[in-house]
Structures are given as C-alpha cells and as structure tokens.
Design goal:
- This protein is of the alpha/beta class.
- Helix 1 links the parallel strand 1 and strand 2.
- Helix 9 runs antiparallel to helix 10.
Length: 283
C-alpha cells in the first residue's frame, strides 16, 4: 500500500517543518510520497525549505491560488492507493498512518477518513466530525442550542454531538485539516471544487464523496494535534470575506432551486457577516 500526502503551506514555515518531521516518522514503515505546495508565502518559506527535506517534492506558487486549487494542482502527480490532504499546522503520531490505512482495508465502503483532533492545549476539536449543514442544523448552531444540548442528535447535529469523540463512526462531514481518501474515491470526486477559495471546500468534498456511493468515517483510534488557524487571523477582514463567501457558494450549490430556503440562508449569512465585521471593528 502506498500513501500520497499533500500539504498546502501559507506563512507557517516553522509549523510546517514540525509537521513534516512528524510525517516522516509516521511514514517509516510505509511506502509514501510527500508533496508540499507553497501558496506564495511571504515568510520566506520557499528559501527556508530549499534542500531541507530531500525526499519531499516542493512546489512554490507565484500567487495565492487558494486551498482547493493548490491541492488540485498536484493530484495528477500522486500515485498512492490512499491520498492524505493534511494541514501544515498539524502534528501526527508515529502510528497514525498505519492505523488509518488498516481501517480502510477493513472497511471497503470507506471513501474518506478523518481523525480525532486536539488543539495545542489538548482540548478536543469538535470539527473533527460534523453533520451536513442543512438550514435546521445550521440554525440550531447559530443560536447556540448545540451548547445547551451538546449530545443531542437534533440540536447538536452540526458537530455530530450524539456520537462519542472516542468511537469511530460514519459521519457526514470531515475536516480538511486531515482528510485521507482512497484512490477510487478521489477518482470519483476529481478533487476539490475550485469555486471555493478558502473554507467550505472540505464540506463540499465530504458531500460529494457520499453522493458517489462511499462513506466518510470519523476514526477515533488515532489523535493528531492541530494548531488551528495559525495561517489565518480569525479577526481579519480577509477571513470574514472568504468564510462568508464560501457559505454563499455552498448554499447556491446545494440548495439551488429552493428559493425560500436560499433567501433565508443568504439573509442569515449576511447577518453573520455584519456581526463579524462589527466585532472586528470593535475589538
């Protein structure tokens, strides 16, 4: 079995270095290939990694083409039986890839796999597993009912709160921070939708994997560390624009033709954008 790993970097060269060191250790007993795509970083990433990792293929873009397009740019080069899209601000344990591949082998219906994630303080990240963000699920999250009823199948569906973080299960949506696909699943979905510049592309890809006849699995038997959001400031104007623009693209794609639903979803998105901009200006 061969594993192909694709990492898109943007201004986190030191975190990427630690990520690659952990990846190399985890690949010790696996045939593998590693591709790093730098999305026009301004922190000197291109010079920093010049000849630093001889067995890793580096590609430096002259402009930031977005997360989806950067990942897709190397899909034609990968030759693995499994393809992992991995964030540069992650650390994987030594046995991570062995256990993930073993899970794929034992579950023939598995098209994509995500893992249990924690932040740098050891706190579980709820986005490790998510439900499809339909209007009802999104509304319950927006008004905070998922916090009041964190294990409810209905009110906490956005984070699949009714499913234990310590037990593997099929789920609707996986995180793009760690998303491992089988070769067949990747061939079916043909990569990320490049209409998404940043954010939302993992939700869309998860949905298309299910539509193609495979399942997405949350795999709880290995845990990675995700230094969440280190390449993007969640208080920046750029984050607000890309995040809410991605939500509108998703709505247009999955609720097209449902005019009333789209109207209320767009209204909610613009309300969220306005609140986010107000908080950014205020603080």
């Amino acid at each position: 079995m061969k594993l192909s790993i694709v990492i898109v970097n943007y201004n986190v060269k030191l975190l990427l270095e630690q990520c690659l060191l952990s990846v190399e250790k985890a690949c010790a007993n696996i045939e593998s290939e590693i591709f790093v795509v730098d999305n026009a970083s301004t922190d000197g990433s291109d010079l920093y990694f010049n000849n630093r990792f001889e067995k890793i293929s580096f590609q430096c873009n002259k402009e930031n083409v977005g997360f989806a397009k950067a990942n897709n740019s190397v899909i034609d080069k990968v030759s693995g039986d499994y393809i992992l899209f991995l964030n540069p601000d992650t650390i994987v344990p030594v046995n991570c890839f062995d256990e993930c591949i073993d899970f794929f082998v034992k579950h023939s219906d598995c098209g994509a796999l995500g893992v249990r994630m924690i932040d740098e303080n050891g706190i579980y990240l709820k986005e490790s597993k998510r439900g499809f963000p339909d209007p009802k699920t999104s509304f319950y999250k927006m008004i905070g009912l998922h916090r009041l009823f964190p294990t409810s199948r209905v009110f906490a569906k956005y984070y699949e709160g009714h499913l234990s973080e310590n037990k593997s299960n099929p789920v609707d949506v996986l995180s793009g921070a760690f998303m491992m696909l089988s070769k067949d699943a990747l061939r079916n979905v043909k990569g990320f939708d490049e209409d998404f510049f940043m954010y939302g592309e993992d939700i869309d890809l998860s949905c298309r994997i299910i539509q193609s006849g495979f399942k997405n699995y949350y795999f709880a038997d290995t845990t990675i560390t995700h230094y969440k959001g280190k390449s993007t400031s969640y208080k920046s104007a750029s984050y607000t624009k890309h995040f809410y623009d991605a939500m509108k693209i998703f709505v247009k794609k999955y609720f097209f033709g449902k005019k009333l639903t789209m109207y209320f979803l767009f209204a909610g998105i613009e309300f969220g954008r306005a609140i986010a901009n107000f908080k950014r200006l205020l603080f």
